[in-house]
């Protein structure tokens, strides 16, 4: 986070003009920062001609890590209560990812900075939606965001009832693939509420999940810019 050395500042206001988040402002002869608004991008320090902006550490959350018995790494980012910008926490989580292994990032819902930070630089984005008007509206925004980031995406329809086809129509129109349909079943919902995975609750779904993984790998491999 930026901190301004008033001795070095010549009040040129370049930092305030450059900040897209209005997190640094020149008020009279003083330059003030608003850490709650700051995304920690470092642009203000970059544009400051006198070196008056220093980047200092500010705790906004924590990252915890662990491993499952089967060797899967698990990293969790938690934003401290009272802070609004989760982007730096997401960035910190991503720094923990081991290079060269398959990584699944569970992004928060919506299309705000934390989602974009999680999706950026990914090989593929799986958008999980539900067959409702609200789900479709969110899906449209998320698919647009993913594409703007240059990340190809596909869809999982959760709680699928097969009675509402607007998600399918949207997918067809946009050339997006529906990778999996998880039906609306009480047994599955109860398993989720106990913290069980779909594969644990319904072992007969394992083949479908593996098939989805294979399909995503295939789609990633056929992307023009893919390096995987
Ligand atoms: S680090 Fe980025 S977001 Fe924060 S004040 Fe500077 S320019 Fe604005
Ligand atoms: S860019 Fe640097 S010198 Fe200019 S107002 Fe901001 S802190 Fe001061």
Automatic annotation (TrEMBL):
SUPFAM superfamilies: 4Fe-4S ferredoxins (SSF54862), P-loop containing nucleoside triphosphate hydrolases (SSF52540). InterPro entries: 4Fe4S_Fe-S-bd, 4Fe4S_Fe_S_CS, P-loop_NTPase. It holds the Pfam family Fer4_21. Transmembrane segments: none annotated. Residues 1-24, 28-58 form the 4Fe-4S ferredoxin-type domain. This is 4Fe-4S ferredoxin-type domain-containing protein. It comes from marine sediment metagenome. The lineage of its organism: unclassified sequences, metagenomes, ecological metagenomes.
């Amino acid at each position: 986070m930026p901190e301004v050395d008033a001795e070095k500042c010549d009040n040129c206001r370049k930092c305030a003009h450059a900040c897209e988040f209005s997190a640094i402002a020149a008020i009279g002869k003083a330059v003030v920062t608003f850490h709650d608004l700051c995304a920690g991008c470092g642009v203000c320090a970059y544009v400051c001609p006198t070196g008056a902006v220093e980047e200092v550490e500010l705790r906004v959350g924590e990252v915890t890590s662990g491993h499952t018995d089967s060797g899967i790494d698990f990293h969790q980012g938690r934003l401290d209560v009272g802070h609004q910008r989760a982007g730096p926490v997401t960035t910190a989580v991503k720094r923990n990812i081991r290079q060269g292994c398959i990584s699944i990032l569970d992004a928060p819902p919506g299309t705000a900075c934390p989602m974009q930070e999680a999706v950026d630089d990914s090989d593929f984005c799986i958008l999980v939606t539900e067959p409702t008007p609200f789900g479709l509206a969110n899906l449209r925004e998320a698919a647009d965001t993913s594409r703007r980031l240059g990340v190809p995406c596909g869809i999982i329809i959760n709680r699928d009832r097969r009675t509402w086809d607007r998600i399918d129509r949207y997918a067809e129109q946009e050339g997006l693939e529906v990778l999996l349909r998880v039906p609306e079943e009480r047994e599955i919902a109860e398993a989720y509420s106990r913290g069980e995975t779909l594969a644990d609750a319904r072992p007969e779904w394992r083949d479908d999940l593996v098939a989805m993984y294979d399909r995503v790998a295939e789609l990633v491999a056929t992307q023009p810019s893919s390096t995987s």
